[in-house]
Amino acid sequence: MGKFITLEGIEGVGKTSNLRYIKELLEKSGHDCVLTREPGGTNLGEALRGLLLSHADENMSADSELLMMFAARAEHLAKVILPALANRQTVLCDRFTEATYAYQGGGRLLDVDKISELEDWVQGELRPDLTIILDAPVEIGRARAGNRSAPDRIEKEHDDFFQRVRSAYIELAEHYPHRICLVDASVGLAEVQKGIYEKLIDYGIVDPDVIAGN
Ligand code: TMP
Q1: DSSP 4
Q2: Ligand 1 centroid to 141 CA: how many Å?
Q3: Cβ atoms of residues 138 and 163 within 8 Å
Q4: What separation in Å is there between the alpha carbon of 38 and the centre of ligand 1?
Q5: In the chain, what are the domain boundaries?
Q6: What span, in angstroms and rounded, lies between the C-alpha atoms of 131 and 181?
Q7: Which residues, in sequence order, are CB contacts of 165 under 8 Å at separation 6+?
Q8: 81/72 Cα distance (integer angstroms)
Q9: Are 128 and 176 in contact (CB under 8 A)?
Q10: Which residues of the chain have pLDDT under 70?
């Protein structure tokens, strides 16, 4: 089986530029890398993403939101993630179930047991080999995200919501240190990348000698 790596964080922490950086490092280190995202990654998943993030139903119930995230995930696992891992490819995914714990559990205050039941049902024993959470205070994320396009349905939530999301992410890293880590994203891009590089080495995903060409 290939490696399964996921990147997480609240809005504005720099996921997009750091995903590119991680993909480059993985490829330099010899990984055959599949880059994908959640919600999304398949035709059905992208259609569900459109429904989840659009403003067509501002009052979507939290349970509907949770179930749609897992419906997209079931499709993504069946069509993209599991076949790639079986093919010994490395899957680099922009968000996964840790986002559900953070946003639907932390943000929407849904019962974590419901999430964990769905996780077991949809994923069986599969968990990412490494989840990197880019962590920064909500104000910093907001200020950076504010420079971009109009906010989607979830980005429109209040600061309290994102404080709870951030706290839930931090708790996940504390509970599962063997597979989830935080990288300080409040600093400049070069320093964030250094933090990511070190984690990829610490968790045995990339080999510094191979990257250095030794
Ligand atoms: P992004 O990938 O562009 O950050 O947008 C995805 C949005 O969906 C983001 O606001 C986080 C949210 N989300 C959840 O609420 N739960 C989930 O399980 C996932 C994967 C994403």
Answers
A1: E
A2: 15
A3: yes
A4: 7
A5: 4-34+88-212
A6: 6
A7: 10, 102, 103, 106, 107
A8: 12
A9: no
A10: 147
205 in Cβ contact with 130 (< 8 Å): yes
Chain segment 101-142, per-residue pLDDT in tens: 999 999 999 999 999 999 999 999 999 999 999 999 999 998
Number of C-beta neighbours around residue 84 at 10 A: 19
- The tokens of 199 are what? 């984690």
Q: Which CATH class is domain 4-34+88-212?
A: alpha beta
- Position of tokens 């599962």? 176
46 CA to centre of ligand 1 in angstroms: 12
Instruction: Pick the atom of ligand 1 nearest to 15's CA.
Output: 4
- What gap in Å lies between CA 199 and CA 182, rounded to an integer? 9
- Long-range contacts formed by 184-188: CB under 8 A, 24+ apart: 184/135, 184/136, 185/9, 185/13, 185/14, 185/18, 185/134, 185/135, 185/136, 185/140, 186/135, 186/136, 186/137, 186/140
- Site to probe by mutation for ligand 1, drawn from 103, 152, 166 as the one with most ligand atoms within 8 Å of Cβ, is 103
Beta strands in 95-149 (DSSP E): 130-135
pLDDT of residue 145: 83
Does pTM top 0.90 for this prediction? yes
Ligand 1 — pocket residues by CB below 6 A?
37-39, 69, 94-95, 99-100, 103-104, 154-155
